[in-house]
Amino acid sequence: MVKMKSIPYLLVFFTIVFTACSSSVDTTQLNAEEHFQYAFDLFSEEDYEDALKEFQNIVLQYPGSTVNDDAQYFLSQTYFKREEFLLAAYEYSKLIRDIPGSPFVADAQYMLAESYYQLSPSFQLDQAYTRKAKEEFQAFIDYFPANPLVDAAEKKIDEMNEKLARKEYNNAVIYEKMEYNKAALDYYNSVFEIYHDTPYAPMALYRKIKLLISTDKKPEAVSNMRIFLERYPDSGEREEIVKLYSEIGEGN
User: Fold this and answer.
1) Which one, of 81, 71, 9, 69, lies nearest residue 45 by Cα?
2) How distant is the alpha carbon of residue 238 from its chain centre?
3) Main-chain dihedrals φ then ψ at residue 123, nearest 5 degrees
4) Cα angle at 150 between 144 and 151, to 5 degrees?
């Protein structure tokens, strides 16, 4: 996914290949490119603890060097590999904000979204991270529409929309059972209007219709029946809605 920038890494590799661990290297004797290669080798060997320290040192010591954005990106990647997703998100966003001309920006934007996606919990819990991941994936699509990762981003947005719809639908059902009918209707409306491309949209509209009938709001129920029959001709509840419409549709 990431292409390294043009740096004489091969030459550097031969100068430090004999080292076996971070404690055996005096990084004060290395220039910026050599120091980065050393850190990158640690990262490649999955020595994330030592790699993290070295990438942090490079970012601090060589702010104007040609490897500054490389170090910033792989610092973010190291946090991600360590499953420290909030810290990874912070570092990706720092690269995007502070080095907007970097060739790593597109990958950083995708990985920023991916970091929040990894933090997204099950639907029963608070969905702040889910919404944030969706927002960042959409930003990725908007800014980099030709990127080959756009399809993956769109699929993850669809997945998160379904999770958010399930959350709203579940809230609506709970409020309906508690007989908080206005709140239940508001949530059913939210599912149907905002998450109309998810399987929960017809389910929400169906339950909304039944709730409207049970609370004697027949004209509004009939109006929603028409919408249901138009939009969901293959629904398993279609036959029931047709029957209800024939019973109460006249004059409403």
Assistant:
1) 81
2) 34
3) -65, -25
4) 165
Among the listed residues 169, 68, 161, the one whose alpha carbon sits nearest the alpha carbon of residue 117: 161
Residue listed under structure tokens 């919990």: 121
Could you give the CA distance from residue 194 to residue 90 in angstroms, rounded to a whole number?
A: 29
Q: Which two tokens stand for residue 10?
A: 């091969």
Residues 6+ apart with CB under 8 A from 25: 16, 19, 38
Which amino acid is present at 49? Answer: E
Q: 5 falls in which pLDDT band (50, 70, 90)? A: low
pLDDT tens digits, residue range 189-232? 999 999 999 999 999 999 999 999 999 999 999 999 999 999 99
- Residue 75 near residue 52, CB atoms below 8 Å: yes
Give Cα separations from 16 to 41, 43, 78 (angstroms).
10, 15, 21
H helix runs in 45-148, sequence order: 48-61, 68-81, 85-98, 105-119, 128-143
Place of tokens 């709203």: 168
